Amino acid sequence: MFRALLLLLAFAAGPALAQDYQSKELADAAGDWRRELLDSVPAARKQPNLVPALRRTAEVEYQAKDYAAAIGKLQSAIANGADDGLVWLSLAQSELAANNDHAMASAYNAYLKSTDSVERGAARFVIGRDYDRHDKQKEALAAFDAGLGLTHLSAIADRAEELRRLVAFRITKVEVQAEADEARASLRFNEQIAAKADISYGAFVRSEPKLDGIVTAHGDTLCLDGLKHGAIYNVEVLSGLAATTASSRARNSRPGSASPPPRRVVCS
To answer: Which residue has the higher pLDDT, 238 or 100?
Structure first.
């Protein structure tokens, strides 16, 4: 006999915590790249008088979308003594447009060298966009948030909100094992659930009617035991349930439903 069970889910909002995009690896790469360019022309052969013309030409080439030429001019300007935040930012933006792997290192140098908040914010946006194009969404969001704390750009703010939804700790799948005497619901998340001996996972679950069984976590799955066949459960996962990554906490998830499938579904 087919036994019906419906599970309605809500996911309570939790605070959004940004991850710092900075790292020793990024700082080291920026330092190495700066030294490489500055040392590419010996001190005795540097021609600082060429720098203004190189920068003007690079701007024209960037506007014409000749990014490779602009990169060459700006690298030459730095090699001949230009070492300010704006020249590094111009180089970073040209490198990003050309999908050049030095974009993030140049942007980090721009951030370190500049004293202007708009330039510093723009440098962080370059870092965020470079992370984003490499599908490093958490790092991109952290860089965007850091930049938005210094200056505003609507396109970046919109993308940051998209990323915030994408990286939020959330339920991605619901499975119900309904062939036993008591059913089990398995709520699968997009990250591993934090496992600690003193955690009571039931404290993060609110159900109407109340669950008769226990709540356990296995990897990325929260398991709700003791569901009665024929009942409809309204289940809310409360904010504060943590992922193994320290910055992730439960956030909003759209309500979902699951009814028993015609085959056996086993909680992983």
So the answer is: 100
